[in-house]
Structure formats: C-alpha cells, structure tokens
Amino acid sequence: MSVVAILVISSFFVLAAMVGLADAFVHFVFWSIGRLTAREAAAEPVQPPAQGITA
User: Fold this and answer.
1) Tens of pLDDT along 1-18?
2) 19 phi and psi, to 5 degrees?
3) DSSP string across 3-30
4) How far is the C-alpha of 32 from the C-alpha of 5, rounded, in Å?
5) Segment 29-51, tens digit of pLDDT
6) Residues above pLDDT 70, as percent of the chain
C-alpha cells in the first residue's frame, strides 16, 4: 500500500510540474507576441508643449 501511495503522490507532483512548465511556456509566448506587436514609443512628442502655461 505504501508503494501505491508513493507513486500517487509523486505522480501528482510530476503533473503539477508539467502544468507549471506549460503555463510558463504559454506566458512566454504571449509576452513575446506582445513585445513584437507593441508600438515603439515616439522619440519626440506629437505636439510640442504649450508656451507660457504654468500649473
């Protein structure tokens, strides 16, 4: 009985590790897609700041 318990518990941890690796892989894929499709920040502002306006 103890051998069966050890196999069940160890298989549970192996399954959890596989799920964690799959989650990390999916996260990396979507992170990469997000970085590749993101627009680059403009080097200069589209509209120059207004002159003479103070807060």
Assistant:
1) 899 999 999 999 999 999
2) -65, -40
3) HHHHHHHHHHHHHHHHHHHHHHHHHHHH
4) 41
5) 999 999 989 876 656 656 666 67
6) 73
Distance CA(52)–CA(42), nearest Å, equals 24
The residue written with tokens 């999916």 in the block is: 26
2 burial level (CB within 10 Å; 0-12, 13-18, 19+): exposed
Rounded to whole angstroms, the Cα distance separating 14 from 51 reads 64
CA 36: distance to chain centroid?
Answer: 14
Read off the DSSP letter of residue 50: P
